[in-house]
Design brief:
By secondary structure, this protein is of the alpha/beta class. The protein contains eight helices and eight strands.
Length: about 230
């Protein structure tokens, strides 16, 4: 599997990459190979992936990478360059996972152009419906203009709690896009925060079995939709 970190924050890269311990006991990722921002160049000599301890390969983004943030200002035709550069490399993998930024823009377009399927994780809020509608409009627009084979798998409810606000937001989504909601949801669970912070699978935590079952159920549903 290949992971492409298209988010300028670089959180996926910092969790998947090898890490070294600092003197203060903290950790920093060891990042090597081609950066995601380099894929936007018109000419690229080659692509070097990073091999991660989890077994996946990674094209990385450093933390808060200014080079990748600047890609939001490039012409639309330049946002097509990553798809062109990566087409041959993608043939070497059974799955390619692209982590997109939580905002509309050139990086999202670049990711959608080279994708076969798209799933949308959504954190419930009072503006969830507005955000989903904007995202779906972007996805549909990219599909019609550049990637007619792109398939929308659906919306994954993530980090949900039992609050009244989340319940109201969920009902709004059920009324607006009922056919797109995944049956399985990921609830707010402290072990997920721990796993994300430590960069480990939640199922490796002794107290993470409930969260692990929810994550695994979503992954199984996603793979079933992919076919």
């Amino acid at each position: 599997m290949l992971v492409l970190d298209m988010d300028g924050q670089g959180n996926t890269s910092s969790r998947l990459a090898p890490r070294r311990e600092l003197e203060d006991g903290d950790y920093e990722p060891i990042l090597t190979g081609t950066k995601t921002a380099e894929l936007f160049a018109y000419e690229l000599d080659g692509i070097e992936v990073m091999h991660c301890p989890c077994g996946a390969d990674l094209i990385h983004t450093p933390k808060n990478d200014p080079d990748l943030f600047e890609m939001e200002a490039v012409p639309l035709d330049q946002a097509m360059n990553p798809a062109r550069h990566l087409a041959e490399l993608f043939e070497n993998y059974d799955y390619v996972l692209i982590d997109c930024p939580p905002s509309l823009g050139r990086k999202l377009v670049a990711a959608l152009v080279m994708s076969t399927h798209v799933a949308c994780p959504v954190k419930l809020s009072g503006f969830a419906v507005d955000g989903v509608e904007g995202l779906l409009n972007t996805i549909i627009g990219v599909r019609e203009a550049y990637n007619q084979d792109l398939e929308i798998l659906g919306i994954v409810i993530n980090d949900m709690d039992r609050s009244v606000n989340h319940d109201k937001a969920l009902k709004s989504l059920e009324n607006t896009v009922p056919d797109l909601l995944f049956e399985n949801k990921i609830m707010h669970r402290p072990p997920l925060d721990t796993a994300t912070t430590d960069g480990i699978p939640v199922w490796e935590l002794r107290y993470g079995h409930v969260a692990a079952k929810e994550v695994e159920a979503v992954l199984e549903e996603l793979l079933e939709k992919v076919g």
